[in-house]
Amino acid sequence: MNSAYRSSAQIFEQVSIRQNPGMLEQLRAIKDGEIVVVKGQYDHVEKLLDTLKVPYALIDSEAVTKNNGGRVMFANCKAYDTGAPVTAVRDFVSEGGRLVSTDWSLGLVTKAFPKKLHKVNQTTGSGNNDVVEVEAHTDIGRRFMGLNYAQCHPQWWLEGSSHVYDIEQGVVPLIMSEEMEERYGKPYIAVGFPEGKGEVFHFISHLELQRTRLKSKTDEGTLDDFLAKMKVSKTAEMEEAKVAELEAAYSTLNTLAHLCIPTPILNSGGKSVLVKPGTSTGSAKSSRLA
Predict the structure, then answer these.
(1) In the prediction, which pLDDT does 268 show?
(2) How far is the C-alpha of 264 from the C-alpha of 49, rounded, in Å?
(3) How much is the pLDDT for 285?
(4) Inter-CA distances, 108 with 2, 67, 85, 217, Å
(5) CA pseudo-torsion sign 39, 45, 50, 55
(6) Given this model, what pLDDT does residue 135 score?
């Protein structure tokens, strides 16, 4: 998947210049300290941020309670059985921060925001990895995936023992999977909910996808096939990958980009706030969605 991510980052930039230059400008305007990544046991969102050339601060989970900056916090997959920084995370979101959690960090979300999500007894794969085709039934989900050509089949990698979850009132399903529901009882890949002045998003498994499956002849297509579908030009830096890999990599990077920019996604009561040149990023309130 590494080649697919590297090529998709360049494809994303070309598509953004053509279709959404304002978003790309916001992405390139991100300053040090705006994005905080909490180290996990398995997921590595920071690698994808490097691919998108987005600056971030990488902290240990123990440092969350001391973090007083940033407007987006990515909580990589990690078990939060005890000692979860519940109050710090709740305050961060309430004051206008955007929390994005993956897989086992569901425990952090359920502790900080009761009656929003809850883990069900089912887990994926019984220790074996799985891949499912995903669908977006909302405008936000479609924007996240960013694939609007006919017969696209974006996929999501499910690491073995990923935490399947259900949602409560007020939580918005963003990306779902009929295949996942058939196998594991619940369809939710990505969901979100507004909270206070901020927003919370949760994804099953990882944003750093590890593999796809070649289900059809279209999935086995080449880089040139994907470039034609996306209507962008090939560059010398792009590396060969299968269409299935490129679809998954591109949609993940596109999702990550939307999560990084300051434009509110779910919380219509918020407003877009960029850190002004020369402003310190040490203050959370100067850079969050507030």
Answers:
(1) 59
(2) 19
(3) 32
(4) 29, 16, 8, 41
(5) negative
(6) 93
Cα 87 to Cα 108, 121, 223: the distances in Å are 11, 26, 46
Q: What residues does each domain of the chain span?
A: 2-286
Cα 67 to Cα 86: distance, rounded to the nearest angstrom: 13
What SS3 class is residue 262? coil
Taking the domain 2-286, which CATH number applies?
3.40.50.880
CA dist 22 and 37 (Å) reads 24
Q: What is the pLDDT of residue 217?
A: 84
At residue 124, the 3 state secondary structure works out as coil
d(CA 182, CA 72): 33
Q: Is 4 left (phi over 0), alpha (psi -120 to 50) or beta?
A: alpha
Place of tokens 């999501």: 156
Q: Which of 272, 277, 248 is nearest to 261 (CA)?
A: 272
DSSP string, 126-166: GGS-EEEE-B--SHHHHHHH---STT---EEEE-TT-EEEE
Tokens of 146: 């960013």
Torsion of CA 209, 51, 251, 29, to 10 degrees: 140
In this predicted structure, what is the pLDDT of residue 68? 64
Distance CA 209, CA 244 (A): 12
The radius of gyration of the chain from alpha carbons, rounded to an integer in Å, stands at 18
Token digits of residue 141: 């989900």
Eight-class DSSP state of 125: G
Residue type, 203: F
Nearest to 255 by CA among 209, 207, 206, 217: 207
Residues of the chain scoring pLDDT < 50 = 269-287, 289-290
pTM of the predicted protein model: 0.90
Structure tokens that stand for 197 in this block: 């002045």
The amino acid sitting at 138 is T
